[in-house]
Amino acid sequence: MDSSCCCPASVAVAFLFLATIAFAVRIITSKIPERLEKKKRRHHPIGGTMLNQLINFNRLHHYMTELATKYKTYRLISPFRNEVYTSDPANVEYILKTNFENYGKGLYNYTILKDLLGDGIFTVDGDKWREQRKISSFEFSTRVLRDFSSVIFRRNVAKLANIIREATNSNQTFDIQDLFMKATLDSIFRVAFGVELDSMCGSNEEGKKFSNAFDDASAMSLRRYVDIFWKIKKALNIGTEAKLKEKIRVVDDFVYKLIRSKTEQMHESSDDCSWKKEDILSRFLQVTETDSKHPDIQEKVAREIKEETNGRKTTDIAEYTSELSEEALEKMHYLHAALTETLRLYPAVPVDAKICSSDDILPDGFSVKKGDMVAFQPYAMGRMKFIWGDDAKEFRPERWLDVNGCFRPESPFKFTAFQAGPRICLGKEFAYRQMKIFAAVLSRFFVFKLGDERKAVNYRTMINLHIDGGLHVRAFHRLGC
User: Fold this and answer.
1) Is residue 29, in this structure, part of any structural domain at all?
2) How confident is the model over 223-272, as pLDDT tens digits?
3) Where, in this chain's numbering, is heme bound (predicted)?
4) Is 389 within the bounds of a domain?
5) CA dist., res. 189 & res. 207, Å (int)
6) Binding residue per annotation — 425?
């Protein structure tokens, strides 16, 4: 018997009835403020309800971008709390910096995400967060990690380039998102855990299972935000929660096995500590994309790369990769701008939510209550004309360059792909270094085109932004290499 059918129909009907009543009461009361507070409080306009989010789940970021176009900041009504979503940089700065202590992850976000992410830096507040942040901040700032990660990035991009070369020679299309994700996963596991995952070549079956399980668990965890019955499903171990439990078991088994292996390796190699100072996991244990629809931009990037690497002709990918210097990468301003423009329109985390700890008034003059979820929207913000101008939806790297062609950063409260304030992403420079090395090598040797120009590209709704079904491209050898 299918376990998802075990819940009696009468119970389901009863819960649906109670949820409907709760929605009705919430909406009615939200439209009739208490007389005593009428002159004091103003609340953001209502954009919809949690039900609208559920209906639009597979196009959630489009739906929320449409709302953000109407209202810089708006509310979605749920049975238990207001959910406030903002695209206003002034509000974002207030939430992430000015009144940082009042807007944390909170118990609500922690409860939803802890099964997948545990008590990690992305889910906790207070002392737990500060301790992990302190350790991570130190590790990411060390020259040892920078140099070690650069070696790993170069090694993996050479491996990736050879895979693409084989596909190019046989005139085959391939899923470049899948290859990028595998290359990134290989790099992260080598730098963070000291483990050769080798998912690009498919030699590690456990690594493949882990990657797929994590993606599925991410999508299922995000769905909890719009599924008011998820706790009941979890308690009964039915439906999506039963599937999520299984996916998390695969993730946990893989990661705990790595930790045990690393701990044993450290104990056995106590006399030789040279290797310990490379990967991040060892240190913690000791302590305790280029758009294929813009060929002109692709060519500008390729020209800059060629100029900054002295234009030397070579067909040896490994040799070119090993000689690609940090100094040359630093001079690639147009490449940096193109990558930043990609992140402006396609941020890794499209929505980031906090919980309000006490009643407050945002800079726009509207009130939020204790317990309200307050979220900023990097995906929607990248498309707002009042932030980026009339060409907000256009892919234009030049917006990041000054008159001399040098990269010009924007306020992190306007360009929010890496968060801002005390929680600003520690891996920002790490991420840029990997992206620039990969883009420099691949753009030097190949020209990329979409496998099917007519096929629509959409995302899969999950915690981070993924292309649904991958991004299938065809590569061609770049002439004049």
Assistant:
1) no
2) 999 898 999 999 999 999 999 999 999 999 988 888 887 777 766 665 55
3) 425
4) yes
5) 10
6) yes
